[in-house]
Amino acid sequence: MTKTPPSASSRIVVDLATLLAIREGGDPVVWGRIRAAQLFAGRRVALFLLTSNIVAMLAIAFLLRGVVPHWQIAAWAALVAAAAVWVGFRRLATDHRGDGYASLRQLRHTIWDGFVLALVWSAVPVFFCTHAPTGTTAGLGLTLAVLMAAAALAMAPLALATLVFLGYLGVAMAIQLAFASSFAAALGLLLFTGLLMVACIHRARALIMLRASEIVLDDRNETVSLLLGEFDGTGADWLWETDATRRVVKASPRFAFACGLDPASINGLPLLQLLAGPSWETGEFDTALRTLAERLKRRESFRDLRLPVQIGGEDRWWSMAASPRFDDHGEFYGFRGVGSDVTEQRASADKINRMARFDTLTGLPNRLMVNETLVKAMADADRWGGRYAFMMLDLDRFKAVNDTLGHPIGDRLLGRVSERIHALMGVNETCGRLGGDEFAVVVRDASDAAAVERLAERIIASLSRPYEIDAHTLHIGASIGLAIGPRDGRTADMLIRSADLALYRAKDAGRGVFRRYEPELHVQAEERRILEMALRDAIEKGEMHLVYQPIVETDSALPCGFEALLRWTSAEFGCVSPAKFIPLAEETRLIGPIGAWVVRTACEEAARWPSDMRIAVNVSADQLRNPSFVTTIASALASTGVSPERLELEVTEGVFMHEGLGATQILDRVAELGVRLSLDDFGTGHSSLGYLSRTRFSSLKIDRNFVRDAACGVREAVAIVRAGIALATSLGMATTAEGIETEAELRALRDLGCTNAQGFYFGRPMSAENARSLANRGWKDAVAA
After folding, report:
1. CA nearest 160: which of 313, 307, 365, 20?
2. Which residues contact 200 (CB under 8 A, 6 or more apart)?
3. Burial letters for 117-149: b for 16+ Cβ neighbours within 10 Å, e otherwise?
4. I need a surface site. Which of 226, 242, 310, 713 has the fewest CB within 10 A?
């Protein structure tokens, strides 16, 4: 909650209790200044009050001569003189300036002034008037009445003391008259005393109102002078001023409120001590406070100086501005300044700065902060001739977790990952999150390359340990690319690029490893970039084409279909291997449009074949991530008129590693169109009966390595092939042996029960024209030819 400081311009309400200092007024700061004005007014009439008491004492002594023994008069006169001097010195001991602050206690203590004077003067009616003749008594009464009237006027600012004096003395005189049976005179005296007391109250109230108006005017004048250009202090919350010794003077109400102190206790305090707070005793000052001390010492103007202060045990931030003040003779007499509490603004700025430099999910430095840290590390290393390092981390299998279990689990997993990485960091390393599942580590001193590599290994080992999140045991890993400067990069961008290339190399090496940057990686990356540019235009330029490899029935040796295989003949690079450009197309997300072209072209060719001849097309996992893939298949079938059962889509078991991406759902929708599905490369390491039970596959293709080994009689291969064929048969699926190259291999797979075969033994991939001719003539005619 924001505190609103009191304003001197608040409306002043003066009731009798406040006037007599029985209770505090509305605004303690303003009333503190008003009380100081009351005491100052009493100080100004101290000598007049002393003189009037001495003169009245002499007049009374003159009237009592010959009536009262001289020793009594002398004793009483000594008491009156002592009381008057004591009261006079008490008044003179108050602050000689009227613009300070006074407490309720100070004003309440003035009651003793009125009480002591009333006590010594009441001796006149109580002891002396009873023995004096009527004429002398009248003179004594008149003298006391004049003294009371003088006190009512002179001591009116100190209303409490004055009312005590008037009331005590008036009542004493009235009682003496009553005892003398002068009841009318007693009543008249009480009325006179009451009038004097009312006059005193009105005069005191008028003084208070006048001083309140002066306070408002002074505050406005100071503020206006600041706004007119003495300081560029727009938005300042309070004013402050020091004398030549750098002590606070004329502390404004807002300044006192901001300090959380009694205004009266601020004046006279050294400004630096006030701002230093508890650290004043220890001497452990903030740098900004030392800067302020230097400016004050040199008598230099300053502005926008941010200082940490402690108010009531709470840490705050102030913004200070001031300039030195000189009199008409050029003599320095202090500083005058403005200040404001900027704690909230600083907190907002710190929050914005943190949001700009730290990751909100993990709390680690973000990409900007990592880059700044790397730039600083490089600058320091260049200055001292050292080396530095940068690691690029990418989490393995994180996307599968995120897509399968949802983003909340994925976010918590990232939090656990960041904790493990941060725990491995020393004073020489800084880790951060670049975005997604990418992290980075900056090593400021990489003079020991082996130690940097050991750190990379520890990170991989730590991140590869299982994670327990919401009853889920999660297994992921990490791949790291390492670049060490200045050899691998003299700028931050170059070093990051080198680490990124090394990371690609680590992923290609099978993930879960780290790789150092090598210069040839830049050459490979440039070649890849140029190849990517050419691949983007390959379809439009007509450089892509399909070749077709026949699939035959093992029993009849007749063709039952063809597999469409993509080829690229580049005008710049010549014939590019599919093993090279297919992964590139998947990485650059070009596999979508290329795959759609392949399906459409293959269906157009199949439309020219006999109606029982199928066409098989390979589909990558990236294609199955796109929900529009089903529309692409349906559109190709509709536009070419090919019946759905003639189209067979071949997917590898690796597709199901991304099951969270919806591969199974996409394949089910394709199967609902009537399209056949084939599980390619069965048995190569990811096999699971769950794939076959959850997805409506029509056929199963056995990898050529198992085909070759089974034909050679390798026991394990024979067992795997026999099990696969038996599984397919039980599920009503056909089986296709890939890579048949010899009669022996064909005979072995036929004996094992394989229904279809494919390989160079039956024909190499051929052009569309040759495939069309072969499909229309039949396999027997082709063999005879």
Report:
1. 20
2. 152, 155, 156, 159, 162, 163, 166
3. bbebbbbbbeebbeebeeebbebbbebbbebbe
4. 713
The residue assigned the tokens 């009105």 is 202
Residues ≥6 apart with Cβ < 8 Å to 653: 679, 680, 681, 682, 684, 685, 686, 687, 688, 691
**CB of 200 closer than 8 Å to CB of 23:** no
Write out the two tokens for 242. Answer: 């020091």
Q: Parallel, antiparallel, or unpaired: how do β-strands 699-702 and 676-682 relate?
A: parallel
Residue 356, number of CB atoms within 10 A of its CB: 10
pTM over 0.90: no
pLDDT digits (tens, 9 = 90+) for 333-342: 788 888 888 8
Give the β-pairing of 472-474 and 647-652. unpaired
β-strand pairing of 699-702 with 388-396: unpaired
List the one residue out of 682, 759, 685, 691 whose CA is nearest residue 721: 682
Cα(718)–Cα(749) distance, integer angstroms:
9
Q: pLDDT tens, 448-489?
A: 999 999 999 999 999 999 999 988 899 999 999 999 999 998
Share of the chain residues as helix, strand and coil, in percent rounded to the nearest 5: 55, 20, 25
Residues 6+ apart with CB under 8 A from 215: 8, 30, 33, 34
Q: How long a stretch of residues is the chain?
A: 785
Chain centroid to Cα 622, Å, comes to 38
Q: What is the DSSP code (8-state) at residue 119? A: H
Enumerate residues 6+ apart whose C-beta is below 8 A from 731: 692, 697
How far, in Å, are 99, 232, 291, 322, 343 from residue 288 at the CA level?
Answer: 31, 20, 5, 15, 15
Using DSSP's 3-state secondary structure scheme, residue 448 falls into coil
164: which 2 tokens? 């005590």
3-state secondary structure of 5: coil
CA 601: distance to chain centroid?
A: 55
CB within 8 Å of 36: residues ≥ 6 apart: 95, 98, 99, 100, 101, 102, 264
- Of the candidates 595, 583, 545, 588, the one whose C-alpha atom is nearest the C-alpha of residue 768 is 545
Angle at 604 between CA 598 and CA 606, to 5 degrees: 100
Q: How far apart are CA 687 and CA 705, in angstroms?
A: 15
Q: What distance in Å separates the CA atoms of residue 172 and residue 190, rounded to the nearest whole number?
A: 10
Q: Which residues pair with 318 in a beta bridge?
A: 307, 341
Distance CA 735, CA 64 (A): 145
pLDDT tens figures, 340-356:
888 888 877 767 777 77
- Please state, in angstroms and rounded to a whole number, the distance separating the CA atoms of residues 261 and 269: 12
349: DSSP letter: H
Closest CA to 745 of 715, 717, 709, 719: 709
* Per-residue model confidence (pLDDT) at position 4: 41
Query: In this structure, are residues 616 and 548 in contact, taking their beta carbons and an 8 Å threshold?
Result: no
Residue of 229, 334, 213 whose CA lies nearest to 271: 334
Closest CA to 748 of 714, 784, 701: 714
Let me know: does 29 contact 7? Beta carbons within 8 Å: no
Residue 551 binned pLDDT confidence (cut-offs 50, 70, 90): very high
Residues 6 or more apart from 694 whose CB is under 8 A from it?
A: 664
Tokens standing for 412? 């918590």
The DSSP 8-state label assigned to residue 515 in this structure reads E
DSSP notation for 167-205: HHHHHHHHHHHHHTT-HHHHHHHHHHHHHHHHHHHHHHH
Closest CA to 193 of 165, 157, 216, 226: 165
Q: How high is the pLDDT of residue 70?
A: 85
Give the three-class secondary structure for 390: strand
Which among 624, 531, 520 is positioned nearest to 577, based on CA atoms?
531
